[in-house]
Amino acid sequence: MKFGETFKEYLHGEKEHSSLFDLNKCSHVDYKRLKKLLKICRHHCREFNNGDFQVEEEEEDRQINTSICRYQSCQWCDRMFFSEIMKEASDIVGCFSSRVRHLVQLHCTTGMQRFLLHLFQCFKNDQQALVMEGRMLIEYVIMNAVALRKILKKYDKVHNSASGMNFKSKLQAEHLEISQSPWLIELMAFCMNFSESNHLICYELCIPFSCDLNVLDPEPVLRLVLPNYANLEYSLTCAVCLHTVFHPYALSCGHLFCKSCACSAGSVLIFEGVNSASPKMKCPVCREDGVFSNAVRMAELDLLLKRR
């Protein structure tokens, strides 16, 4: 089955589960619409005074225009195509992080806050429902990440360029690449915390996946395995002390550190917290500044490593 059909089947199945998890309100890569934009670009549209575009009907002109579109910069595509993807990627990351944050709060909060959260959720969520929602969110990440990768490859194929892959690098630089989000690591740890082993396998979704953690490796790695697509690996070694992360924090650039190492890199005391570091302080790995204020405490990952 082609990916377009798989993605269509996934969206249809998501609507069926909308009454339980309400994921249909989350943004998606509009794979079908983006493919149509590429088809228009293959025939190279002309812009009229009213701002509309019309496909050339004459065969000779169409061949000439297609050649121009394939081998030169296409400003129409750059404006329409990449702006669409940028907006969708931003919406996807925002929706995903908010949903995972909510799951982590339900599972890891303590004291009165935990009691109140469970009081409000006790009539509609149980442990099995939380696990299922976590797995559906992993599927949400997988489907949109694969759709994004494939549509950018199609863009490069149509234009005979590397603009699509360069744009993917731009998404990573702006922290809009969902597969690089620290919330995905938290979600994987969340699902594995409900399992008694270091392996989690899920076959009942559109794209089967498995999560794997081997803490006995010299450099422990958390893996997300997607058969026939890709394997994502996340190193759990702190780049400062070179040990497995302890009380892990993820900076907004995505790099993981121990809490004490992150505080040291941000020139703040541990009791002050990672987020109190100056905006001028830089990540020890990528040297990006302003990454401490939105650092994420990796509560589920911390719990997973302690149990293993």
UniProtKB/TrEMBL annotation:
Keywords: Metal-binding, Transferase, Ubl conjugation pathway, Zinc, Zinc-finger. CDD domains: SPX_BAH1-like. Residues 238-287 form the RING-type domain. It comes from the Eukaryota. Residues 1-169 form the SPX domain. Its EC number is 2.3.2.27. Pfam families: zf-C3HC4. GO terms for biological process: protein ubiquitination. It is an enzyme of class 2 (transferase). Pathway: Protein modification; protein ubiquitination. It catalyses: S-ubiquitinyl-[E2 ubiquitin-conjugating enzyme]-L-cysteine + [acceptor protein]-L-lysine = [E2 ubiquitin-conjugating enzyme]-L-cysteine + N(6)-ubiquitinyl-[acceptor protein]-L-lysine. GO terms for molecular function: ubiquitin protein ligase activity; zinc ion binding. This is RING-type E3 ubiquitin transferase. It comes from Cynara cardunculus var. scolymus.
